[in-house]
Protein: Pyruvate, phosphate dikinase
Amino acid sequence: TRYVYRFGGGVDDGGKGDKNLLGGKGANLDGMAAIGLPVPPGFTITTEMCTRYYNDGGVYPESVKAEVAQGIAHIEQVTGKTFGNIADPLLVSVRSGARISMPGMMDTVLNLGLNDQTVEGLAQTSGDERFAWDSYRRFIQMYSDVVLELDHGAFEEALDIAKEDRGYDLDTEMTAADWKVLVAEYKAIVEKLWNKPFPQDVHDQLWGAIGAVFGSWQSDRAKVYRRLNSIPGEWGTAVNVQAMVFGNMGETSATGVAFTRDPATGENAYYGEYLINAQGEDVVAGIRTPQYLTKAARERAGAKPLSMEEAMPETYAELASVFEILEKHYRDMQDIEFTVQQGKLWMLQTRSGKRTAKAALKIAVDMAREGLISEEEAVARVDPAALDQLLHPTLDPKAPRDVLTKGLPASPGAASGAIVLDADTAEKLAEQGKAVILVRVETSPEDIHGMHAARGILTARGGMTSHAAVVARGMGRPCVSGAGSLQIDNVARTMRIDGRVLKEGDTVTIDGATGEVMAGEVATVQPELAGDFGTLMEWADKVRRLKVRANAETPLDCRTAREFGAEGVGLCRTEHMFFDAARITAVREMILAEGEAERRTALAKLLPEQRDDFAEIFTVMAGLPVTIRLLDPPLHEFLPHGEGEFEEVARAANVSVDTLKRRASELHEVNPMLGHRGCRLGVTYPEIYEMQARAIFEAALLVKENTGEAPIPEVMIPLVATAKELDLMKAIVDRVAAEVFSERGATVDYLVGTMIELPRAALKAGEIAQTGEFFSFGTNDLTQTTIGISRDDAGKFLTHYVDKGIFARDPFVSLDVDGVGELIELAAERGRKTRADIKLGICGEHGGDPASIAFCEKIGLDYVSASPYRVPIARLAAAQAAL
Ligand code: PEP
Ligand code: MG
Structure:
């Protein structure tokens, strides 16, 4: 097996830009070199080597040593420099590169190949002694941090002291002689902390760095990132070794990052940042505030320092032409790293750029219109889960706001929450259900868990491509970065903005679309659903086969669902219609009733309310199917709790509090989710389902009469385990329907069906389908009962199951296709055998999860039903599943 692939200088080992083999970075370096773009020569050690390295217990096969030597020889040949040569040394960078980019997760070493002797050679050939010694001290610092894993604080402290002793403010004031002294100090620090001198052999340096990149694949922060993004541990990372180019060789040198389109808005305009006389990490780390790439962006921001377009017009023009070539070649928006060394442009990286949902949508629609991609590809390009960002409220432009300061609009969306100054606290408070805003000077990969837990992120330092910005956009968290006037005091636990002091715990609002930071909470408005969103949804609807319905039980939810494109209601949970404070007393009265007569009295109070509710829903959903599920309350959710509630119910039912309390304790269940709920309630108290059926048919006739458009009620019986239960319940529904129809002298079409949410029901689906006219898979209960894990308590331990790889994802979020999925597939098959045209849908939470929707498409269900805000996600996911 070949483990090393070379690129650049006209050499191509046939890696064919394969991301799985070369990792994302390596594949695209290979790809750029192959189409003739200026890429410094180098080689990639494959991800297969990483996997083998771990399988073999951290050793390399002999063959790979020879291949790496050939790789170095290749770079030497193209550059004319020699690795470790004293007169004209070759320096290389060593970087990681997984299949999918993991921003900030993996380590990089620059300037590798410098030692006490080659530094002199570099000074000679560059004619810049200061540059050479600055590079050497950077290398020692980075190598000690990343490869030797020594405490980097010691190095920073030494530098601070050096500057202080000399009365300097900036690193740039340090002279060649100053750096030389500091290098000696750095080496002493290494020897003290590591008990060995800093490695002088350049080959030892190289293998140390390669080992560190492979090692970083199993670092804690990489593992966290993989877990959050469902990236398998077996993928491994590649290692890229490449000739160094220098952006810090004076005023004609620069380094920058750019996007071929705006990653926040999707606007078709180059977007980027650069720094003159700087090395790559300076831009990303957010230590110096970068300058704009284009004149237009600089002017829009009212910034002074010249843009690259103005400062280096020729190189900028060359860069712009590379942008065009790359977009056409990769047919997607690119995120690029480049360096200019003494006027010569070098491309260091390109990859599909991370973008906000808004930008993803606009770029996909624009590119399809530009003819760069097809409509289907545009549909495939947008991550359905990311649409979530667009479907949620933004700040109300009319709401008053107390603006504290303005930073960069790094990731859109509005968020309010309590100020929290560190990631661990953010995570802890979020677990308790608090909305928090993580406020940091700048974020680092160690903050990932806190960023994930926070509603939004605010940083004092860093540009649009800083760690905070990139990660926040990827996660869909609103983020304001580089709010320069923000000062954080980690001891007093306060943040100070222009003389105003806010304490940790105070509420702030950030607007990631404008960069504004506001005191207190600001009101929000509903999102705009026309434009690009509407266009993409139209294209999605053209290719989708699955119908999409909504889980909704209020007229408001139904209206939202219709606006989002729902094609019916897939689940109206009637017990939720009773949560209303005004009604709950009557429901409690019904539940606690001593006998049928008392129960009927309570039910009579509920009938008109139910009928009116159904009539409203039928009106909103005119002409569309509405699945109404008869009562399915775990009883404990409705029992009175405090003294006051008992008194209230006692008064309404005209019985004593003591009687009620006795009755409540009789009803108490040890295991309510497996207790007296679902159709078991209808079996014991048929009058409840009778009342509900009556409300449904009376409402349906009313709406038919008033609007001329008859609704299509689908009456659904919950928690059925046996065919007999369904037979009994359907008989009640049919009898009441016949009664109502004859009373009113009119009819409507309706169906009676069942939920399949118990394993027995799935197994006996063939029999159940003799009575059931449709099945709706209640995958919440079906998951709970198939795996035997309580849906209410699983949160406490399921993360461990996901961490240990027992489940790839939380089975209550994404369907356990392997187990629960098999039951669904089997039930669908058996149901269809009995009743060929049986209607099949899914209405558990999984109905809004893209991976689960793909499964529903595969087994040919008729529809999925999701909560209203997830309807567009389901439409897009259903389209992608059909492609
Ligand atoms: C289900 O069990 O999947 C379902 C939709 O019903 P509920 O969540 O109301 O139990
Ligand atoms: Mg259920």
Summary: The two ends are 35 Å apart (CA to CA). The pocket of magnesium ion (ligand 2) is lined by residues 757, 778, 780-781 (CB under 6 Å).
